[in-house]
Design goal:
single chain, about 120 residues, alpha+beta, Gyrase A, domain 2, four-stranded antiparallel sheet, 4 helices, about 40% helix
């Protein structure tokens, strides 16, 4: 994994705020700016979600990771889409309420990066 930047630390230290449905999603430029702070995450072509794949030695490690992701999601009240199985986990973040990305998605991504 890439070394954490100061920005990663700043994002990971922040708390998610409740997203009202009337806020616009981040623009591609806004999403790219945040993505630079979470460089291991891939921005979708339509700039409406970010995702990252993780590899593990076995199912037990993948499950333990997913449990930690769940703890972060509950603490932040911002829940990713999670797929996992033997030796892998995939996380997709987007804010469904606004049909795109919000700063909260990048806050959760930065917090997930810290547990890897």
């Amino acid at each position: 994994m890439a070394a954490e930047t100061t920005a990663d630390n700043e994002l990971a230290a922040r708390k998610c705020v409740a997203c009202r449905g009337d806020v616009p999603p981040l623009t591609r430029e806004g999403a790219e700016s945040h993505r630079r702070e979470t460089p291991e995450w891939t921005l979708s072509p339509d700039a409406k979600r970010i995702e990252r794949a993780f590899k593990f030695k076995n199912f037990k490690e993948a499950l333990a990771f997913v449990d930690k992701v769940g703890e972060i999601a509950e603490a932040e009240q911002h829940h990713p889409d999670v797929t996992f199985g033997w030796g892998y986990a995939a996380i997709v973040l987007q804010t469904h309420k606004i049909k795109g990305l919000h700063e909260n998605d990048f806050i959760v991504a930065a917090k997930i990066d810290r547990i890897v």
